[in-house]
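Here is an idea for our session: we take a single protein and study its fold together. Which protein we use is up to you, so please pick one and set it down. Once you have written the record down, we can walk along the chain together:
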Amino acid sequence: MRVVYIDDSFFRSTPFAQAMLARLKLQLQQLRPLLILISTSGKSEALEAFCAQVQATCEVIATPCRFHSGDVSGVLRRDAVVIDGEGMHRCYSGSLFCYDSEKREAWRIYLDLFIEKRSDALARLTRQIEEFLNEALSEKKHIFH
C-alpha cells in the first residue's frame, strides 16, 4: 500500500503554494497512493476541494487522529506523522513524504526543485534582451565618439 503524507501548506493562497499544489496533483497521478495523510491545523476551501477531488481514487485523512488503513497504521499529528514500524516524519513546504508498506520503503519528494520550462524560457528571453540592449547601446557609443 502506498501512502503519501503532506501538510496544509499546499492549500494556502500564495502563488508558491498554488504552484506546489498543481505539482502535487501531477505527482499523485504518478504515485497512485491508496492513502493520503494531511496534517492540518484547520479547514479551508482549498483543502476541502482537494479532498473531494482525490477521494474518488484514494482514502484521505485530514485531521489529527490515530489511523488504520489496510496494512498501515499510526498517528497523524498537526505537525508530523508517526507510521507504526517506520517512525516519525515531518512535512515541509513544497515536499511530500511517501511510504510503500509492501516494499517497506520511505522517501521524500521535493516539488520545488523541479525545473519549470517557462522559467528557463523567460530567463533565456531576458538574456537575449539584455544582450540586444547592450549591443544597441554600445553601437550608439561608437557613433557619437
Observations:
- Residues 99 and 107 are 7 Å apart (CA to CA).
- Helices lie at 15-31, 45-54, 117-144.
- The first strand starts at residue 2 and ends at 7.
